[in-house]
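Researcher: Structure prediction, please.
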Amino acid sequence: MRSFWVQFIVLGVYLLLVFIISRLIDFASWFQHGISSTQVVDPLLLSVRQLKQLLDNRGVSYTGYVEKKELVELVDASAEVTHGEVEHLNGPDSRIVLEQPARFSGGAHFYEQVEDTKDSVWLVQVVPADGEPLLDDLSWHVVRSHLAPFAIRTGVFDCRLDRRLCGSKGWDQPLLLLALPKGSRPKDRVILRTFTSTRPQAIVEWVREQLSIRVKRVKSVEEVQSEWFGEDEAAVNAQNSEVRVLLLTHLLHPPLFLAALSVKFTGRIKFGVFTVKKEDAEMVRKKLGLSDQKLPAYVVVTPERKVVYGRRKFEHFNYAAMNLFLRSVQPETNDVFLCSLVLVNMLVSIRMFQVTVKLWWKHLAQCVWTLVSYNLWLFAIWLLILAVYRFCVIGFILDMILIVVRELNLTEAAAAVRSDLWLMCQRPYVVMGSLLVYLVAIAGFIQDPLPEEDEDNNRSGVPGGRSWWYSLPIGSRWIDCFFRPAQALGIQAPTDFDMEEGIEMLIERLAVPNLWLQPSVIPTDYVKELPLWRFRIPSTSSSENTKCCKSNNQLQLKVLDTHCVDSPETVARMMDGEEPGPHFREPNLPHQNNECKCVPAAREESSESEESTSASSPEENTILGTMGCWWESVPPGMLLALDCAVCLEPYVDGAILCGLPCGHSYHQPCIFTWLSRDNHHCPVCRWPAYRNKVHHPHAD
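Model: Predicted structure follows.
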C-alpha cells in the first residue's frame, strides 16, 4: 500500500510540474510579445497563404475567391481568428501526416473495415476488374490531403480481388464510394454514396455536401430557444442528459470540420446550424442572451449550462481541437479506458525505479511482474465496472461522476490541461524523456526500505536504500577492465561478482572534466575507521589435548577496534609513516586464561567434534587449530594474507597491519603512504577505500 501511494504522489507531482512549466512558458511568451493565445487577431494582418490555411483547416471552400478582401470576409464568416490558432498554423504540429490508403484484400476485408466502423467516414476508390481507376495518382493524392485533417479515411478496392462483390453491387465502372452512418443512433447502419467526377475540388465539395446533411438545420430563433437552449420544460425532460452544439453563422453550409465531428459523435452529441443574416445578428444575439458574443458563435449546451466555444486556451476552430474538447465534455468509455491505461503504465515505470533488489535478474523479474499485474488489475476493474454498470445504483453514481467531470472540463484550468495534453500527444518522446529524467532525479527518495541484512551495509546516504542503478546487469568483463583491472587480468579472485559500484564509479569519473586524468578530491576522514591490529605468528606446537595456546600472548591476534585512532594527530603521524605514538593502544585480549584451546573454525565444541578431532593426526589437528585461531581473530571480512602487496615483503611477528573495506590487508605505513597520494582505492582490487562493502560468508 505504501508503494502504491508513493507512485501515485510521484506521478501527481510530475503532472503538476508539467502544468507549471507550461504556464511559465506561456507567461514568458506573453511577456515577450504582449499577446495571449486567446487574443483575437484581425484577419487583414494575415497573409493570403495563412488565410487559405485557416479555411482549409476549418473546411470552408474558397473556390472562386481570389482577392484577399474576399478571403478575409470568408474567414470572418466562419469564426474569429485567435493568436493561438495562427501560431498553430506556423508550428511544426500543423503538418498533417498523410497515411497510405487502405488496400482491401476482398469483400470480407471491405465489410470489416468500412461497414463495421460506425463512427468514421470512408472514401473508397473502386477499380473495375477490366478498367483503370477513376483518379490518377496526383489527383488522388490531392483529394486525400484535403480530407486528411477531418479524419476521413481513404482506401482502394480492386474488383479483380472479388469479382462477385463488384457484380452484386453493380460496380462495373470506375467510381468513388462515400461510406457514412445513416441515422443519428450510435452504431447505426452504413450507407454508401457514389460519385464519378475526376476533379479533386468537385470531389471535396461533394464530400462536404454529403456530410453537411448530418448537421441539423435550425429555421427560427424560437426553435433555438425551445429545442437547443432548453427553455422549454418538455425539451429539458426529454434531453436532460444530451449535449448539443449549435453554430450561429452567416454561412449557408456548416464548415467541414463540424460536419465530420457530427459523424464522429453520432448518438452522443447533437449538432445543428442556424444561418443568421447580417442585418438580424443584433436581434438574434439579444433574444438568445449572447449580447457579449460576436457572430459566428459555437454554443455548447450541456444539461447544466451553456458555454461559447473559442474563448479559452486551445479552443481553435478545427477538427483536432474541437474533437479533444468534446471528448473531454462527453467522454466515451473507450476514452476513459485509454486514459487509465496510460496512467497505469506510467505508474509501472515509477515502480521500476522504486524497486531495490540487489541482483539484476530479480529486478528485471519484478519489473515484468509489476507490468503484468498492474495491467491485469486494470482489466479486471474495467470488466467489473462494465458488468455492474446496468445496476441502477452504479449507473446513477457514474452519471454523477460524469456531471462533475463535465463541469471541471468547462473551466479555464481544464482548457490549459487540454493544451498540455495535445502537446504531449504530439511529442511522446519528449514526454518519455522528461519522465525518465524526473525519475532518475528523485530515485533516491522513492526507494523501498532495504532488507534488515543490508541496512548495516548501506553507506550511500540515500534515503530508503540504494540507488536504482545497483540492480543493473553490469557484471561483464569490459566493466571489469574499467573498474577492476586487477580482477579482469586474473591477479586476484574476487569474493563477489555483484559489482554494484560500477555505475557509481562511472558517474564519479565522468564528473571530472578530463575524466580519468585528474583525480577528484576525497576527504581522508575515512582513515580513522580502518581496522588496525598486530600480526602474530601462531605457534605450531601440539600436545596430547591439541593445546596450541600456552599464554595470553600466544596464538591471539590483538585486534584494535575503530576507536583505536582517536585524534587527527595520530592519523597524520601514521599517514607519514611514523610510529603511532601514545594514542595507539591495544584493547584487552578476549581470553584472560593462562591456557586457551584452539578449535578449528568449522567445528563446534561437542562430543561429535571431539571424537573427530581425536581421530585425526596430531599434525593435522595442530594446523587446523592454528588456522582456526588466526582466522577467528581478524576483523570480520578480512582475507587471509601473509605478505603486503605494496612492498611485497612478508609479514613479521608484531607488524602493524591495516585492513581495507574490500578485505585486503597491508602494512600500516605502506597503505597509509599509498592513500596519502590520492590513491583512495585498494591496490589489488581497486575497490574505494572510503566505501563499505558487503562481504559474503566464506565456505568452510
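Model: The chain is about 45% helix and 10% strand.
Researcher: Thanks, that helps.
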